[in-house]
Design brief:
The chain is α/β, with parallel strands linked by helices. The chain has nine helices and nine strands.
Length: about 270
């Protein structure tokens, strides 16, 4: 029976991923700071699918908790087949407006949480081969104004994943990076924003999306096992990424226009 750790697995995309892998016969470690929801999910997955699913309380910013999780998995499972670094947070605000503490919080969770997961569990994966999926965002590839902290953290996850993809290939470890655009999830629940407009826009875009967390989870399962590096879920945003890669001047003109429109709206609201 294959075994996987999924961080941020108590809700949203993480929950959908846990359900997908358990449905496919995997044992799942539901790692999250949300204990009540995580315990309930792990219990249900075990009952529904007959696999060894369990909850583990994990703050991805804590090295001590990562080490404790490693010790638990090494003792309980004696090995690991896959790790999905999914836990993440959102923030928005202009560079001179977003508090530095919020910028640091975003990087600590979104980037260093992924780094720590890879650091602690790569040795276990090296023993038998396996899979790492790092959850970034389309914001890691396309960098819209007003999202500097989030963009930086997710772009760094893409860079880390590309590095590890080459670094770990010889050990039989396949690395993928997931870069979704807006979909139906709870991303804005704990979002830190300097104005409510950013949260409202994000909620509206998520509500309008026809793509669900379950859709993305199914795609992650299929494409990561196939060894695909970039896992892209949204056609429109994928086209913009291709525009950026092949026609960078045109892309930069468009992104600058977006920045000017945002500035105009903010100026009108404060006038």
């Amino acid at each position: 029976m294959k075994k996987i750790i999924i961080t941020g697995a108590s809700s949203g995309l993480g929950e959908a991923l846990a359900k997908e892998y358990a449905k496919q016969g995997w044992s799942v470690c539901v790692a999250d700071i949300q204990q009540e929801a995580g315990e309930a999910l792990a219990k249900k997955l075990s009952a529904d699918h007959g696999t060894d699913c369990f909850f583990y309380s994990l703050d991805v910013t804590s090295e001590d908790q990562w080490q404790a999780l490693y010790n638990e998995v090494a003792q309980r499972w004696k090995g690991l087949d896959a790790l999905i670094n999914n836990a993440g947070v959102a923030s928005s605000g202009d560079i001179d407006d977003l508090p530095l503490s919020d910028f640091q919080w975003t990087v600590d969770v979104n980037l260093m949480g992924v780094v720590k997961g890879c650091y602690f569990f790569t040795p276990l994966l090296k023993k038998q081969g396996g899979y790492i999926v790092n959850v970034a965002s389309m914001a890691g590839l396309l960098h819209v104004p007003g999202m500097s902290a989030y963009n930086v953290s997710k772009a760094a996850v893409v860079a880390l994943s590309e590095t590890l993809c080459a670094e770990l290939e010889s050990y039989g470890i396949k690395v993928s990076v997931l870069c979704p655009a807006f979909f139906q999830t709870n991303l804005t629940k704990n979002m830190r924003a300097t104005h409510q407009g950013g949260i409202k826009v994000a909620n509206r875009l998520m509500e309008k999306s026809s793509i669900s967390a379950a859709d993305i989870a199914a795609k992650v399962y299929k494409e990561s096992l196939a060894g695909k590096f970039h896992i892209l879920t949204h056609t429109r945003e994928n086209m913009f990424w291709r525009l950026k890669r092949f026609l960078p001047k045109i892309y930069m003109m468009q992104i600058k226009r977006t920045g000017k429109k945002m500035h105009k709206k903010m100026t009108e609201k404060t006038a």
